[in-house]
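Q: Make up one entry.
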Amino acid sequence: MQDSIAGLIIDLVAGRGELTDAAWERIEPLLPRVDGRGRPWRDHRQVVNGVLWRLRTGAPWRDLPERYGPWQTVYERFARWEADGTWAKLLEHVQVRDDAVGRVEWTVSVDSTINRAHQHSAGARKKGPADGDELEDPGRSQERQALGRSRGGLTTKVHLAVDGRGLPLSIVLTPGNINDATAFGQVLDSIRIPRAVTGRPRTTPARVLGDKAYSSRAIRHLLRRRGIVATIPERRDQMANRRRRGTHGGRPPAFDKDIYRNRNVVERCFARLKQFRAIAMRFDKLADRYRAGIVVAALVLWLREPAG
């Protein structure tokens, strides 16, 4: 009863969490245009606000309030724009715009968070092998959909790289039981901001901040090879092993405690993203759909950043 009353109250508060006029002016020119064929599309702004409502509340698509139009329309538009890359293009646009005026801070922090997966997120359709004779192994299907099983049940791990302001630069999903260091290369490779005019996309941070989970020889070597300064604390077992080897253990890696304090921007980013309940808990069966929701939420964070 209390849940239904709370849902009704949320439903009556029109405009809460929706796009502001300023935010809409920034993304509206980038949305697909009606080509004059078939039935006219429902208003894009109404649909985007419907997507935001679902992300914010975590409610099923079927419970979408009538003011956003038919829930089927909103979901199909959300899925279509995930498939054709529209959501990713919108996020890239705001990133390019900020980078062009020097607002992106290229001291990048990396981390991950584990999000519980609702029981409805399991059971995505399993595709068979090329010959189509057999179904895919259920465990492999879950891994392909970024679902991992642990003591707490099914989980998905969200890996982020954020700039110095705590705004997402790359988003990678893995099963929840995957080690952070395993996904580091993919997270770093996913950083890509095209230039506003000409030139190669910006892909290399000036510095990377990470916690002890990223303290490995392979990661430090990767960063050094790319000319990126690493600010990653050394694990105790690594310190003990180096001391035990004496002069053959080498010098300790450089580490700046003052700069490392700024790593909490990635923690704050996760906290802001988890204000969207459909991100704090995964309800989507498909990893691509769940990631698209995170991209939309990240877009909102970028649009909320005050112009300076």
In short: DSSP finds 13 helices and seven strands in the chain. The two ends are 46 Å apart (CA to CA). The longest helix spans residues 287-304. Residues 1-14 have pLDDT under 50 and may be disordered.
